[in-house]
Design brief:
With about 375 residues, this protein is of the alpha/beta class. The chain has one domain (about 5-365): Rossmann fold (3-Layer(aba) Sandwich), CATH 3.40.50. About 45% of the residues lie in helices and about 10% in strands. The protein is built from 17 helices and nine strands. The strands form two sheets. A seven-stranded parallel sheet has the order 3-2-1-4-5-6-8, with helices on both faces. A two-stranded parallel ribbon has the order 7-9. Helix 4 (about 85-95) runs parallel beside helix 5 (about 115-130). The two termini are about 20 Å apart. Mean pLDDT is about 95; it is low at about 360-365 and about 370-378. The protein binds NADP nicotinamide-adenine-dinucleotide phosphate. NADP nicotinamide-adenine-dinucleotide phosphate binds near residues 11, 14, 80, 107 and 142.
């Protein structure tokens, strides 16, 4: 019987890492799950048969150790500052370990000239990983996750309002993918590098939805009326501060919300990636919403939760204004003189042209090197 390769899953307690690790275990692959703490998520992974590695993804020593005896890996930079650091540490360790194949979580918006430093760093990571001579790469360039709408679950469930700065509520601007479908694409590429090396995928949900439709589906699942409210970025920033998001992510989210309003996530969406790689249809938003709502205590309509939601709403209104430009200057974010939103980028539009298929033109042209190496040995 063929021996299955050992697969390292980074960010294994996160949105996409957890289902990637669990789905790989369901298929019988040995999984090393890199987490940063031994909590209930680590227990879930352990119970599924994964080997737990507690480490810091900024640390080369940890990544080097985590890759010992590993043949393939899922690289997911946490939603945290210094994405380029995560990617470079991973790349150097992967090169040393001579991994045969890596699947990387990229971004739908990834472009060299993007105004978001986080997005440019994701783009750089992709290109650095693609330079590794012994390792093939598949890139999973996902857009605005379905999960993101549930950042506002407390307000949605308790107050009946989905407040987000997504612009006109009637325009269909996103086909939100589930974490499970993003993971299923990762898994397909991890277990069959020969079929997926050198390719970029853009998984989406099954249909484009407007913010009003998303609010209506959340309302159906929660059995209450939910109204989408287009709010200012200033209010979003205050809400993220109250929710404890730190400084870095909110500055980048302003760019992503801007792209959302411009319709960038609707360009050539929905895609067939989930169906093509898994042989089944992507999950629809109602299915995703039912699963998330069932897991989250703030969705329960009880007096204590409603009181908490009202208190948090008052805290948002009284929180000091957040100045993203000042934060970016203070944190020394690399800012371009002439950044380009993706809709205005010729290179990005070409890379999102469905007629180009799944073979990125450049630089993801390497096919799987491993059958070639063994061919040479034979
Ligand atoms: N959300 C979107 O719409 C979207 C769209 C496209 C691409 N992306 C990409 O998605 C990526 C994030 O993926 P995700 O949402 O699956 O991950 P995630 O939920 O942010 O999970 C990251 C995990 O890594 C852990 N972590 C954080 N810092 C760490 C460190 N220094 N060392 C070790 N572990 C660390 C976190 O631990 P704790 O849980 O303990 O905090 C968390 O479990 C980002 O690179 C972003 O560019 C997101």
């Amino acid at each position: 019987m063929a021996i299955k390769p050992r697969i390292l899953v980074t960010s294994a307690a996160g949105n996409t890492g957890l289902p990637t690790a669990l789905q790989l275990r369901e298929k019988g692959y040995p999984v090393r799950a890199l987490v940063r703490s031994d909590d209930h998520r680590a227990k879930r992974l352990k119970d599924a048969g994964a080997e737990i590695f507690i480490g810091d993804q900024y640390s080369f020593a940890d990544l080097r150790h985590a890759m010992e005896g590993v043949q393939r890996a899922y690289h997911c930079a946490p939603a945290a500052p210094n994405v380029l650091h995560f990617g470079s540490v991973f790349a150097v360790a992967a090169q040393e370990a001579k991994l045969e194949h890596v699947v990387m979580l990229g971004q739908w918006l990834a472009d060299a000239q993007h105004p978001s430093v986080g997005t440019r760093e994701v783009w750089l990571n992709e290109h650095v990983l693609n330079l590794l001579p012994d390792t093939t790469l598949t890139v999973n360039n996902v857009g605005w996750f379905a999960e993101n709408y549930f950042w506002a679950l407390e307000s949605v469930a308790q107050l009946g309002i989905l407040p987000m700065p997504l612009g006109d509520g009637t325009i269909r601007k996103n086909a939100p993918p589930s974490n499970e479908d993003i993971a299923a694409v990762n898994v397909a590429a991890l277990i069959d590098p020969a079929a997926h090396a050198g390719k970029t995928y853009r998984p989406t949900g099954p249909e484009l939805l407007s913010p009003n439709e998303i609010a209506a589906i959340m309302g159906k699942v929660l059995t209450r009326k939910v109204k989408y409210q287009n709010v200012s970025e200033a209010l979003m920033l205050k809400a993220l501060t109250v929710a404890g998001f730190g400084e870095m992510m909110p500055t980048q989210l302003c760019y992503y919300a801007d792209e959302y309003r411009r319709g960038a996530f609707a360009v050539n969406a929905p895609t067939n990636a989930v169906r093509d790689l898994t042989g089944r249809d992507p999950e629809d938003f109602e299915t995703i919403a039912r699963r998330i709502v069932a897991m989250r205590p703030e969705a329960q309509r009880i007096a204590a939760n409603k009181l908490k939601a009202i208190r948090n709403f008052a805290r948002i209104l009284t929180t000091s204004k957040v100045e993203p430009a000042a934060i970016e200057r203070r944190r020394n974010h690399v800012l371009l003189k002439s950044p380009t939103f993706v809709g205005d980028s010729q290179a990005w539009r070409e890379s999102h042209d469905p007629s180009a298929g799944y073979n990125s033109l450049q630089p993801h042209s390497k096919a799987s090197s491993h059958p070639l190496v063994s061919d040479l040995v034979a």
